[in-house]
Amino acid sequence: MLGRINHIAIAVPNLTAAAMPYRNLGAKVSSAQPLPEHGVTAVFVEFDNTRVELLEPLGENSPIAGFLRNNPFGGMHHICYEVADILAARDRAVALGLRVIGDGAPKIGAHGKPVLFLHPKDFSGTLTELEQI
Ligand code: CO
User: Fold this and answer.
1) pTM for this entry
2) Residue spans per domain, the chain
3) Is 1 in contact with 126 (CB distance < 8 Å)?
4) Residues classed as catalytic
5) What is the mean pLDDT, run by run of 10 residues, along the chain of 133 residues?
6) Which CATH code, of 3.10.180.10, 3.90.550.10, 1.20.1050.40, 3.30.9.10, is assigned to 5-132?
7) Residues whose CB is under 5 A from ligand 1 (ion)?
């Protein structure tokens, strides 16, 4: 059920500083894109096989604010795997005893596709996102 890694998200306190080493090492780095409905500003670093998303908090209730309080220099926030059918993936996860965050209803993620998050306690401390492609 888990397909390709769609992206790896890294929460950062400063996007310009965070993007610099990727840019200097020759990666393709986007401009900063504010995503107010998701409480972040994002820079996308494109690779042949996946993408790294650098996420800086935006606004008062950013979902990554608490993570950055605990990790003030930034850190890996989540990994996103592609799935063909988000509801089937959710039902399979639940049947396996994996914890879905929130009410279990998929939300529209930062790429306009349905997403769900699975609890880091079930993935060795790593918040896990499923995105329907
Ligand atoms: Co994500």
Assistant:
1) 0.94
2) 5-132
3) no
4) 129
5) 96 98 98 94 97 96 95 97 97 97 92 95 97 96
6) 3.10.180.10
7) 9, 80, 129
What pLDDT score was predicted for residue 111?
Answer: 87
Give distance in angstroms: CA of 86 to centre of ligand 1.
Answer: 14
C-alpha 130 – ligand 1 centre gap (Å): 8
Q: Are 99 and 119 in contact (CB under 8 A)?
A: yes
Q: For the chain, where are the alpha helices, taking DSSP H only?
A: 15-24, 65-70, 86-95
Residue carrying structure tokens 């965050």:
101
Q: Give distance in angstroms: CA of 21 to centre of ligand 1.
A: 21
Closest by Cα among 113, 68, 106 to 87? 106
Sign of CA dihedral 90, 92, 98, 103: positive
Q: What's the 34 CA to ligand 1 centre distance in angstroms?
A: 14
- Give the model's pLDDT for residue 110: 85
